[in-house]
User: What shape does this take?
Amino acid sequence: MNTKILGAFAAVALLAACANQNAAQTGSGATAATSGPVPGSQEDLVANVGDRIFYDFNQSIVRPDGKTTLDKQAAWLAKYPSVNVQVAGNCDDRGTEEYNLALGQRRANAAASYLKAQGVAAARISTISYGKDRPTAMGDNEQAWAQNRNAITSVR
Amino acid sequence: MIELPAPMIGRRGLIAGAAGSAALLAAAERTPVYAQSVAPPATGGGTGAKSAVIDVTRARAEPIPVAIPDFGGDSQLGRDIAGVISADLARCGLFRVIPSSSFVQSGPSDAGAPNFANWRGTGTQALVTGRAEAQGGGNVRVEFRLWDVLPQTQIQGTAYTTTQANWRRISHIIADVIYERLLGEKGYFDTRIVYISATGPRDRRTKRLAIMDQDSQNNRFLTDGSWLVLTPRFHPTRDEIAFMSYANNRPRVYLFNLGSGRQTVLGDFAGMTFAPRFSPDGGSVVMAVADGSGSDIVSVDLGSRASRRLTNSGAIDVSPCYSPDGSQIVFASDRGGDQQIYVMGAGGGGARRISFGSGRYATPVWSPRGDLIAFTRYGGDTANFSIGVMRPDGSGERILSEGWLVEGPTFAPNGRVLMFWRETRAGDARGSGFSSRLVSIDITGFNEQVVPTPTDASDPAWSPLSA
Assistant: This one.
């Protein structure tokens, strides 16, 4: 499980590097001057903290790897006290729409509760469930489903 | 002879206007249909007072041979009407429509009694004849007669007057009359399907509320896709839909009045509300609300808007549906671990589990006839999903259809046909090969057919039959 997360981070880092390289190559110096995303932004959260945690099939218990990510999110949120976030719970599509709406809400709640327990003010966190309607991965195999069972934190 | 109510007011009302966050994209005016009975012609013989010619069980094994020559009068309209009636009867699987190439006498049907000998020779058991004639003021008069060929009797004769734009609806009404007179139970052709239309890549789907006739005609989009929408359901008597919308990123159940286009949030809940269904009397909605650790079943009175919590288990209680007499509610819950189907009193309490087969059970929906509960089943000893039915006490479980993903059955108003949706498995990481289609099937498990839609589709809900 941990290796998959690392893989995702590596991919994000790689993309960011490419973007910077392209900017440098095309000579658009103005944008290239800012190295990396704006601190406290969604891009910053994605690139330097991790915006999502993953769940096991039909579960809403935050796994140890998820807690590691949420700890970093809580620290990041402490650093940027004016930033509010929404936590969206998602499911793979090996369940029914209506059940998954409730399961996605459970996942969002579990992640939000963990953040609150780490000291993030409840008023800064909202939750929503998309059930199986907002998959990240479009395939139909275990690898895709594992990516789609998540709670995604986004800056509001 | 069956007397259709006269005047028969178009239950679809006026569809126009827009309100709220989602705009109506199409408008169509519905006007009343007036019916009157037609006496059999002097040479026709027979009393017309006759019960069903054949029962459904026999028809399933041996579809009724029926001939529907083009109606006389206005030739284009006469051909179109006969075509819609033929398509309705053929699609339901209980009739065999005799092709016109085997007719002994060609041309449209004429007034008066048919030459029964000519029809007997084609193997026709039931013959439909009629005339369609334009009247003043854009109106049209459609007359039809249903004949039992062997005893040479008229079973039914009815004339309808309406605006020309209503000709499809008249055709469906006639097909329903034929179905009822020959099979002894009400038809379902003069009905509509509300569903969710989906377009775009799988990770950025645009979903719109859509409505069409049961034969896929007159498709219209009711929302513009700005917000995710899910799980529409028809009101039992009013031209109204309950559905879930993510408008303003607040996922809630809304009521959508199809006449005015007005949308209103149902109830005032802190958490997400979803999975609505109207009570059989149309006076309330039962739905799920996620404001605790799982989700609970609540009912909301549509008059007072007062709500009542019917479960409070801490589990995921979801997908509630009333029994047709309104006394009980069937729902899905994972209170025992895996998701299973439970039945409780309409006021809550006394829930008892009724599903005990392999896997998880979901989306229970009670047949309008009261005799069956349809469901989605998945997991257990198969990777596939299936659609099945069981009796309300959980006995007699039968699986009707199975596939990679089949979900969300809805009953035709006569309880005879189920519609659900089927998704195909994506073949790669880009989602290639994925599709989502509406499918109908007879509750005996035969005559499974794709229901055509202009886009990918899911979440079908069958309308009631017109009053």
Observations:
- Chain B touches chain A through 46 residues (CB under 8 Å).
- The radius of gyration of chain B is 23 Å.
- The domain at 33-183 of chain B is CATH 3.40.50.10070 (Rossmann fold).
